[in-house]
Amino acid sequence: xxxxxxxxxxxxxxxxxxxxxxxxxxxxxxxxxxxxxxxxxxxxxxxxxxxxxxxxxxxxxxxxxxxxxxxxxxxxxxxxxxxxxxxxxxxxxxxxxxxxxxxxxxxxxxxxxxxxxxxxxxxxxxxxxxxxxxxxxxxxxxxxxxxxxxxxxxxxxxxxxxxxxxxxxxxxxxxxxxxxxxxxxxxxxxxxxxxxxxxxxxxxxxxxxxxxxxxxxxxxxxxxxxxxxxxxxxxxxxxxxxxxxxxxxxxxxxxxxxxxxxxxxxxxxxxxxxxxxxxxxxxxxxxxxxxxxxxxx
Length: 297
What we know:
Elements: E1 8-14, H1 22-30, E2 35-42, H2 53-68, E3 75-77, H3 93-102, E4 110-114, H4 119-127, E5 136-141, H5 157-160, H6 163-172, E6 175-179, H7 181-184, E7 188-190, H8 191-197, H9 202-219, E8 226-228, H10 232-239, E9 244-250, E10 253-254, E11 260-261, E12 267-274, H11 276-292
Parallel strand pairs: 1-2, 1-4, 2-3, 4-5, 5-6, 6-12
Antiparallel strand pairs: 7-8, 9-12, 10-11
Helix pairs in contact: 1-10, 3-4, 4-6, 10-11
GO molecular function, one term: purine nucleosidase activity
Protein name: Nucleoside hydrolase
Pfam family, one: IU_nuc_hydro
């Protein structure tokens, strides 16, 4: 009798140097024994902050893998820029990794967490449209909430960096779990908690807290002592999907300004809330356990 695999096959596609929360999600995934991380893909985050954003993300991924001693984890470059339109893929080793893993018939379901734009998933679908027939779930941190938008609300960042890619993916019919802005902002931690629970956990913990505070100093005008770990719910959903409060909705398309438009008849599972207590405490405990196993920590 065959046994159910004790690990879940996953890929993480991350704009790791965009802000300061991707790092926490990457580390959480790599510290989780039930996640078989088949690869980490470096994603771009537009050109507003850097002309080499994808390569910046790759450097951050390599830094984290080095700090964790995880040279066994495959890392690939994704697209260096957004799709030029909804019909033209931007090919990359990252898109080819997605196709390779999704096409495996011997390894069970695949979940791909997108912590930035959907460029690499859209490219994979354009290169191989039959991927929609595979047992693949796209988990996307991105897009606006589904209720009435606040006056002056701008386009959600991950969507803004490649609206065409989002439309390709949402139109395709592939299975999507979406964590919109209204949900992912509810995963905040304060400096005091980070100083107590993360910073003492060796070189890695100290780095995670330091880079978060440094990022806040560069982008925040007013006083601040917190940050939303907005990418971490994607890892939470891979570990514990029952921790999410879902509602199935008609899958929308998106205007150039990020507004919701009528879709193409598919559905999307929208995670409207995630269990932040479980999510954050699981991360803190795994990081503390990992640090305790390191000599001299």
